[in-house]
Specification:
It contains five helices and five strands. With about 120 residues, it is α/β, with parallel strands linked by helices. Helix 2 runs parallel beside helix 3. Strand 4 (about 75-80), helix 4 (about 85-90) and strand 5 form a beta-alpha-beta unit.
Length: about 120
């Protein structure tokens, strides 16, 4: 399955995502913010998917995604957020190939979105 990096400062959400994706056979690494995600992307074995929250301390998800697009344009990205998708897209200047999963989401919704994106 896929190597997935999860960036979310909400420990409950991050743990739910980690367990759900690990249950589906994925290798999951969880970090608490964008800066930690950048460090993991630079130092760990390559990830195939970044799943990131939008609102986080230090470096938010939109800053993280913009940086990732400059350095790892091939990395698949799913944003999870309680914000409306339209507002999120405006913050990203309508970058393409960024997927969105609104909070709250179920295990089935998460698994389905990851499967869709990893095709």
């Amino acid at each position: 399955m896929a190597r997935i990096l999860v960036a979310d400062d909400d420990r409950a959400v991050a743990e739910f995502v980690r367990r759900a994706l690990a249950h589906h056979g994925h290798d999951v690494t969880v970090v608490e913010d964008g800066l930690a995600a950048l460090h993991a992307l630079e130092t760990a074995d390559p990830f195939e998917l970044l799943l990131t929250d939008i609102v986080m301390p230090q470096m938010d998800g939109t800053q993280l995604i913009k940086h990732v697009r400059e350095t790892r344009g091939d990395l698949k990205v799913i944003c999870i957020s309680g914000y409306a998708e339209e507002a999120f897209r405006k913050r990203l200047d309508n970058l393409e190939n960024i997927h969105f999963l609104p909070k709250p989401f179920s295990l089935d919704q998460l698994a389905g979105k990851v499967k869709e994106v990893m095709r």
